[in-house]
Amino acid sequence: MSFHPSLLTPQSKAKRMMLWFAMISMTMMFAGLTSAYVVSKARPDWLTDFRLPAAFHLSTLVILLSSFTFWMAFSMLKRDNTNGVTRYTIITLILAVVFSISQWVGFSNIVADGYYFTGAESTVTTSFLYVLVLTHFAHLIGGIVVLLVVLIRHLKGVYLNKPLGFSLAHTFWHFLGFLWLYLFVFLFFLR
């Protein structure tokens, strides 16, 4: 990752450390939420026959693919391939939107199956699912904004001399993919 001398400055290292602190904080929040989920499974009103919709399976594939395409964009930046960076960043942005849509479809399927997230008809199980996935979705919106900023700054040529912003976005995007993968595996096996 240290392909450019500007990534080794004390300011760059400090910004990278701040990002890591933020990601560790987010990880701790999700660890707390998933721990509460595990503890709540002992409740007598916990749904045991609940299945994750196929849209969540699709979204898992899409987020993994988007991690690959953003990795490719970063690789293209290292090679000074401007067209490749643009192409793969746009593909990543499109995949992020597809991921968001598949999440919405997944929630719609859950509601169509008669499971509600809030209100009198809601259950503890679906409320936990709602909180976990919606919290991840909020972070994803931040990630989409980061992708848009990165794309605009790339098109302006900002990263030719100072690739730190792209590098930080790259790290954060992979973190979001890992976080969704963790949540999906967690929810898939610990219903």
Give structural notes:
There is one protein chain. The protein is 76% helix and 0% strand. The model has no long low-confidence stretch (mean pLDDT 89). Helix 1 runs antiparallel to helix 4 (124-155), helix 2 runs antiparallel to helix 5 (164-189) and helix 3 (82-112) runs antiparallel to helix 4 (124-155). The radius of gyration is 19 Å and the shape is elongated. The protein has helices spanning 10-40, 54-78, 82-112, 124-155, 164-189. It is an all-alpha fold. It contains five helices and no strands. It has a single domain, classed as Four Helix Bundle (Hemerythrin (Met), subunit A) (Up-down Bundle).
List keywords for this structure.
5 helices, mainly alpha, Four Helix Bundle (Hemerythrin (Met), subunit A), 191 residues, elongated
Could you write a compact summary of the structure shown?
Helix content is 76%, strand content 0%.
Number of helices: 5
Output the helix-strand order.
HHHHH
Strand content: under 5%
Spans of at least 5 consecutive residues with low confidence: none
CATH architect. name: Up-down Bundle
CATH superfamily: Cytochrome c oxidase, subunit III, four-helix bundle
Helix and strand layout, with pairings?
Blueprint: H1 10-40, H2 54-78, H3 82-112, H4 124-155, H5 164-189
Helix pairs in contact: 1-4, 1-5, 2-3, 2-5, 3-4, 4-5
